Amino acid sequence: MSSRDHDGGRAPNPLPLPLILVVVSFFVLMAFETGQTLHDQHTLTELLQAQQASVDQGVKLRQQLQTLAGKTAELAAAGDAGAKSVVEQMKAQGITLGIAKK
Questions:
Q1: How far apart are CA 76 and CA 98, in angstroms?
Q2: Phi, psi of 12 (to 5 degrees)
Q3: Do 72 and 87 touch, CB atoms closer than 8 A?
Q4: Out of 12, 49, 69, 77, which could bridge 97 as a Cys pair, Cβ 3.0 to 4.6 Å?
Q5: Residue 15 DSSP class
């Protein structure tokens, strides 16, 4: 008896069709997910760059406000009545002023 007699005359299939389909589907899914991740990363990078100008303006404004508040606190410490009033109103609102550094 030959090997053809045992399996009905067909050569053995090394990989069954369902297994091949699962592997191919997995690789297609991974390729799609990788592409989607790269697209999302590019979109997030663009959004970050678009917001950078606003962030820079906010930092600049904050520095200006800190300088103004510090000078107001210095004036209040020197006895200026208007500055003392501003400092008291800010303290009532929970805002503390530091003296500006030179």
A1: 11
A2: -65, 140
A3: yes
A4: 69
A5: S
DSSP string, 19-60: HHHHHHHHHHHHHHHHHHHHHHHHHHHHHHHHHHHHHHHHHH
In angstroms, the CA 7 to CA 102 distance is 94
Which tens digits make up the pLDDT trace of 40-70?
999 999 999 999 999 999 999 999 988 888 8
Count Cβ neighbours within 10 Å for each residue of 19-54 and write b for 16 or more, e otherwise.
eeeeeeeeeeeeeeeeeeeeeeeeeeeeeeeeeeee
Torsion of CA 34, 35, 39, 41, to 10 degrees: 20
The pTM score is 0.52
